[in-house]
Amino acid sequence: MKVPAILACLVWLCLPSLADDLEEIKLYGGYQFTRLDSHAAQDALNLQNAINPTFPLLKFGNYQNLNGWNAGLDESAFAKWFSIVADVSGSYGTNNVNLGTVGNVSSRARTRLRLFSLTAGAAIHAKTQS
């Protein structure tokens, strides 16, 4: 987590020196909420209980909520109507899973979910004259 933040700060600090060479660059960032449907994964794992009844039934919920960040840039150095766009994001979440009780011993597990994405491509802007 520290390395991406340091790189983002360095890029941000270097942008004014590139301003003469670049026609237009747009940076954006924000908060991201992701809701994963984990119902199918839970059902698949619980099939093991049907085969082997000593395997505990897992109950970690039908959905997993993740909180995270989103950042990107849009550079139109080639033409005013064409730009290169890149977007990166990361989402994080934790969940406590009760694995059940055998005898007088109860078992719990903590899951950590991390989801990262990187998208890039070209954008065509339809601008009208005012």
Count of beta strands: 4
The N- and C-terminal alpha carbons lie at a distance of 44 Å
Count of helices? Answer: 2
Mean pLDDT: 79
Helix/strand/pairing category:
alpha+beta
Strand line-up in the sheet with most strands: 1-2-3-4
- What is the H-and-E element order? HEHEEE
Strand content: over 45%
What characterizes the major β-sheet?
A: 4 strands, antiparallel
* Principal-axes shape call: elongated
Low-confidence stretches: none
Helical content class: 10-25%
Radius of gyration: 23 Å
Describe this protein's structure.
The chain is of the alpha+beta class. The protein is built from two helices and four strands; from the N terminus they run H-E-H-E-E-E. Strand 3 (82-102) and strand 4 form a beta hairpin. It is elongated.
Tags for this model:
four-stranded antiparallel β-sheet; alpha+beta; elongated
Draw up the topology in text.
Blueprint: H1 2-18, E1 25-37, H2 39-51, E2 63-79, E3 82-102, E4 105-124
Antiparallel strand pairs: 1-2, 2-3, 3-4
Quick synopsis:
With 130 residues, this protein is α+β, with helices and mostly antiparallel strands. It has two helices and four strands; from the N terminus they run αβαβββ.
